[in-house]
């Protein structure tokens, strides 16, 4: 099994998702959504190839669409490195090439 790393930017993305959801739909919904997001990240850990390749943006990177967000990760032979969790309306290329 791969080792899971979650980068600080991705952790910050998840915190911001929680805050946005809390502001708009309350604490219970924010907790529920981020728990489901955590489960989605662990699904990627169980099946690393499930995400779509985005090699055209960055070599070795993949994208997994979960509800209204994209879990973006770098896949190596030993590590799944979660680099960002971005809203589906965000410009992925812009955020990955900064």
Automatic annotation (TrEMBL):
Keyword annotations for this protein, in alphabetical order, are: Toxin-antitoxin system
| Pfam family membership, one | ParE_toxin
The record's section on PANTHER family has:
TOXIN PARE1, TOXIN PARE1-RELATED
Which family does the UniProt entry place this protein in?
Answer: Belongs to the RelE toxin family.
Task: Specify the protein name.
Answer: Toxin
């Amino acid at each position: 099994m791969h080792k899971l790393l979650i980068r600080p930017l991705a952790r910050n993305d998840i915190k911001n998702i929680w805050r946005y959801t809390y502001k708009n739909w309350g604490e219970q919904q924010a907790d529920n959504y981020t728990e489901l997001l955590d489960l989605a990240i662990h699904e990627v850990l169980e099946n690393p190839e499930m995400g779509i390749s985005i090699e055209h943006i960055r070599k070795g990177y993949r994208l997994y669409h979960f509800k209204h967000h994209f879990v973006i990760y770098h896949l190596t032979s030993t590590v799944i490195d979660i680099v960002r969790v971005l809203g589906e309306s965000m410009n992925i290329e812009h955020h990955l090439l900064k």
